[in-house]
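Final paragraph of the annual report: two paired records, presented back to back.
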Amino acid sequence: MTTSPETQTGRPVDSTSESDVVDRSLERRHSLRTRHAQNLTRLMETRTDLRGVHALADFVDDAIRWTA
């Protein structure tokens, strides 16, 4: 059985602050995903010997190249 945040804390919970937390979390996740993709592309450009080592890395690198 789940209880509401008000029941757990004994005080009302501001729903706006919860949505702000979710928004910030989503923004951080998007930023991290973008940064990782950029770093992976940079790595694959400098280290061509890594091509074929990991299929997901090859896929992401190719996908980024096609969208550029």
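The closing record of the year follows.
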Amino acid sequence: MRDREVIEREMFQAREDLEANLAELKHVVTETVDVKARAKVAVEKGKIMAADALERGTELAMEYAVKGKEAAMEYAVKGKEAAIDYANRGKEGARQLAKKGEDKAYFTYLKAKDRPVLTASVIGGIVAAGVLLYVGHRKNWW
């Protein structure tokens, strides 16, 4: 049989090993189960992620603002060019209409010059109708 001292020494060493292992296990379990510490870590990670997302969002917003500004300026230039084009078309159309009116007036003048009696009778009829309407209205004929 073994000596009592050897057995006690082995028991003492086993107890110390057991206590050391238990302390290490406690420490590991505390770290693993420590909800408060894990929550703090998660909150810190969340803050970092939120700051990163804010930075990326700010950059994207600035980029889209610049793109929007450029697009608006491009559309403004296109709109200005289209407005000038429409104005020029309108001017040309007005010139053409004025020219047509001038031509018709001149053509009518030439016809009236060729037929003076007809022209005088038409003008006389218009003046007579105007005088009759005026006098009739003043004298309450109708």
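The chain has a mean pLDDT of 89. This concludes the annual technical report; the extension proposal builds directly on these records.
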